[in-house]
Amino acid sequence: MRPTDETPPAPALRAEREPVPEQEWLEYAEFGERFVAHAVTEERVAAAVAGVTGRKITFGPFKLGPAGLAGFVAEGKVGEPRIVRHGPHVHYTVTVPVSLALKALLGGRKLRLEAVVSVEVALHARTASPLLVVIDIPAIRPDDVSVVLRTQAGDAVNEMLLDPIAGVVQREVANRVNPMLADPQTRRRRVFDIEAIVAGTESAHRRRAEAEWAFDWIDYAEFGRRFFPLLVTPERVNAVLEERLAGRPIEIGPLRTGPGRRATVTVRGAVRLPTLRPREPAPGHIEPVVYDITLPVALDITVDVLKANRYRAELEVPLVLAARAADPLLLVIDVDPPDPAEIRLELAAEGVRAATLGALAKIRKQVVAQVAGVIRKELTSGSGRVIDVGARIGKSV
């Protein structure tokens, strides 16, 4: 038997079978940006840069001015970064405080200075191939470092002597904080491999980031487009169909039919393993992930008219499954219930009498309708059809 040559359209949720309120569908770009915005919270950004807190910084001695008449050494540590999010998009300002104590020699005088240092850098979450969310922190420049020098009470110092010290502090702090943010463990915490998280496996991309910070960047629309094919794979779809439908018993009857309702029909059988074929999107179009599915059903039919007449029935039920993005951050598995008119049925009679039994033609539609009803009931169950991606992000990312 062959499936129908007419390819059914991608299914739409129908009010009469909808277990949840009507969905507001999202474009892939919108879904991608919402996903990243939901996943990359202030807490996760803070965790990604937490490794710098408490790290020591020392530098010097440096000699400044003509003939090295001024010089200093500095020692201190990095404080806890502060994270501020800007607007609805995934943009953050990270402020890293650094406290330094300086021992300086200025104009022949030994002084102790306090440097209040603040490193401010803008970062945002980016998406990369194949399905990564990366907290990308640009390299800190001296201009990103602000320095305020304070002398001890009673010490008067010429501002012209302090300015060169502040410039050196800016440069040296930038040179030391950059490696802290780029060390292997900190890098690892800044990469989220969504595919590996969903599969429950270790990510090779996170391990690679420890050694090399190089990515194939993609935009949010491409991330959203890749999200569905990578998660709604043929293997996962097939596993769901096998779990929910394969082996599902079909039991119909006994039904009374025929002239005078003298024929009794009993049907027993089961759904077999489904086959599925990914539908290729039209060139240049971003479409939902769609699978054409053929669900085989094997039935034993008994028509009892004076004596039992047995038949073997083979059915092919065509289905279409689509994975769509919906508001606020949902993945909806949408399957159209089978149309009895599209179900193919082949019957093989056991024996001459069964083959010539006139009552058989009248039960074909009943059998097909009953099988369609059983499959429809299973497919339209709300269980497993709607996945709250936003809720799962909080538990797994």
TrEMBL record:
Domain of life: Bacteria
Protein known as: Uncharacterized protein
